[in-house]
Amino acid sequence: MTPPLQPGRPNHSPGDARHRVLSGAVRRLSAIPLFALSLALLTGTALAHEPHTGDRSNHRTAASQVAVELVDLPLVDHQGTTRRFRSEVIGDSIVAVTVVYTSCTTVCPVISAVFQRVQAQLEEELGERVVLISISVDPARDTPRRLADYRQRFAAQPGWVWLTGERGNVMRVLDGLGAYTPDPDDHPIMVVVGDGRSDQWRRDFGLQAPDDIVARIHTLLAQREAP
């Protein structure tokens, strides 16, 4: 059983590199013009997190195969429907998951624009075998209505689910994905791609190129079809 999260602080020791939020990463990225972030992604360049101040060895931009904990707690989607995260949102689909919040004016719009391009490339695969998931790290302010309004900016289709909910549940789900943060401004910039059926998961830190995310999804789809 996942231990209770302590309000207002991470539920991990300072040395737990797998879960630590890179303090100040979003603030540092805010100094990069939005058009520059978008251009880098459109040309296939991934912009990485800076490592934690004073800890240059903790550079978490490389991809890693990981064991995630898909906590089956109820969250609320952008339509106001309560859905359990593992059994009703992920199920046995192949998913790409990221974290954002609607009042973010730096990297979150870029992350969402990346998913918009992923959505366009998936076409008919989206919603059938593949689901995109954006989870708010600011559930206190990001109501379902606010998420619904925000997702319209990115022409989100039905196969792209936006989630909020009771803060304790949201934080536990994020913790299982390796994305827990008590402060939305310090949330990790990351994408988790995996297969809810086979439990194969990969976590990438830093802004990812849409083509790379789509390639990972297609690899998982191909593995399902292989004898």
Secondary-structure element sequence? HHEEEHEHEHEHEEH
Widest beta sheet: strand line-up = 1-8-7-4-5-6-2-3
Instruction: Look at the helices and sheets and give the structural class.
Output: alpha+beta
Q: Tell me how many strands there are.
A: 8
Largest sheet: 8 strands, mixed
The helical percent reads: 25-40%
Write down the overall geometry.
globular
**How many helices does DSSP assign?**
7
Unreliable stretches covering 5 or more consecutive residues: 6-62
Average pLDDT, rounded to a whole number, is: 79
Oligomeric form of this entry? single chain
Strand content: 15-25%
Radius of gyration: 16 Å
Q: Distance between termini? A: 36 Å
Structure description:
This protein is 31% helix and 18% strand. By secondary structure, the chain is α+β, with helices and mostly antiparallel strands. An 8-stranded mixed β-sheet has the order 1-8-7-4-5-6-2-3, sandwiched between helices. Strand 2 and strand 3 form a beta hairpin. Residues 6-62 have low confidence and may be disordered.
Question: In terms of topology, how is this protein built?
Answer:
Blueprint: H1 25-29, H2 34-42, E1 64-65, E2 74-77, E3 82-84, H3 85-90, E4 94-100, H4 108-122, E5 130-136, H5 144-152, E6 160-164, H6 167-177, E7 190-195, E8 200-205, H7 210-225
Parallel strand pairs: 4-5, 5-6
Antiparallel strand pairs: 1-8, 2-3, 2-6, 4-7, 7-8
Helix pairs in contact: 4-7
